[in-house]
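Give me the fold.
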Amino acid sequence: MQRKSRPKNERNPRWFSMKIDAGLEPGQVKSALCFAALCFAFLRSDLVLAKSPKNVRSTAYSSSAEREIEEAPLPELTVEDASSEQTQFQVLPDYPESQVRNFAKPREDSKNDRSSSRNASSGFVGSVAPQGETLDQAIQIAVEQSRTQRALAHRRGASRSVVDAARSLKNPKINNTTTYVGMLNQPKAKSDVDISGAMASAAESLIANGETAVVSALAQLPTEFHIATPLVDRNFVATATSVTVPIYLGGRVEALAQEAEALAQAIEAGEEVDLQRIKLETAEAFFLALRTRSLRQVAIEAVEAAQSHLADAERMEKVGLLTKNVALAARVAYSEAKQTELRVATAQSMAETAYNRILWRPLDAPVVLRDDESIEPLEDVEALMDAAVANRGELKALGAEGRAFQAQVKLARADVKPQIAAVGAYSYVENSHMTGNSNATAAVGVTWTPFDGGTSRARQEAARQNAMAAARMREEAASSIRMQVRQAWLLQKEARDRVEIAQIAVEQAEENYRVATRGFQEGTLNHTEALDAATMLTAAKSSYTNAKYDAILATERLKSAVGSL
């Protein structure tokens, strides 16, 4: 039996009676209750308005724009995510995965700590010591994963093979040629035979003996014949083996070996230049990620300061100590701080993307870095300049290029010198018509071109001019490198001095902020002075962060200029 359905309002007598007494529809009652709840939430500034799995935001929103900024999704990082990403890194076939593993070991975050959850994406968790990659580990992975280093390594191997090929020209050479010959027509030797004289002598002897009948018969026979004698078999095998031993080549072998060796050294020098480039690029990306992480922390602290100032302004506005425009200015300052935080967070994500690309990882892989490295400055600039001249791959490449041109001078000079070689050979021809099918020979040959029309002399002069040009270019490069080292040393000195000044500025800005905030809360200072103090504190912290990483990068760039990074 089917049950008779009743209207929803009749299932709850209490609700039905309230509807009759108040004279309102259920939808109107619900709307009124929601409006009352929103009014209560607006009056209670410390009410929790938004909650996420990672943290709880306690924020009083003054506009929908601020709500959208605050509720923007934040990058999250957990240990499980980091471990799962390790298997996605691109690994070259000739390197085991253990050599390119991710050293990042992010720690679990506190779900109720706002700053802890904000910093999880950068690997910094409150006062807990961060565990992550160091600069040396990052450089090692970047070098192992570099495609340019792999390509230059192949070129280096090829250049060494060219050197071996040049040196092998002085070794004996054995050559063998074996053929099987099949002919359509067998070659024969043609000869004409005339026996008329023999026939005449025989006839005279027969006539003397009275054999006239036989003489008549012999007279009928032909006296000229054509005979074809085979020279070789129609199908046969022929083989010849020779050994050539160079005796004197006019210095050609030594010149070719010197040229190939110089070119191989130039390639190795280019490999060193590329290695320094990769190391510096990795260091810049590494410290850029750390810089943006620190700047984001500064931006978060600025948001918290602006939020605290906003709460003070709204509380003082309620009791009539401040006008409404002061509270509006505090809201504007809070909104600006949130926007700055978003911009810095985007910059941090972009820096981490660039860092992952250098290490050939997925662009969205988690980046957890260890910022506990102490980099000492380099002091003796004269010693650094001398070391740069001795270490820089650019100078090594130009020196090797000059040696290659000098070897070309010797090579061109060898063209007009005698070339002496000894040759021994053994041959065998399968021929049934020959009495001896095999033979051995020995010879000494001399090839000499005493005058080639001036070609060799012109080549010598061209190579000599190129060698002089390479020497001048090396002198210019050495001067430029010394200047680069000194400029990098000056930038390092400036950055180190800036760190000390910025650190003092931070201490003063913190004290100024503390005094201004207390004065604003006590009513002795206006809101403009409090906002200016917060702005100056944020600027001082940002300047200190930039100065700190500028000093570190200045030292790394100085090492790269010296060629010892």
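The first helix runs from residue 8 to 11.
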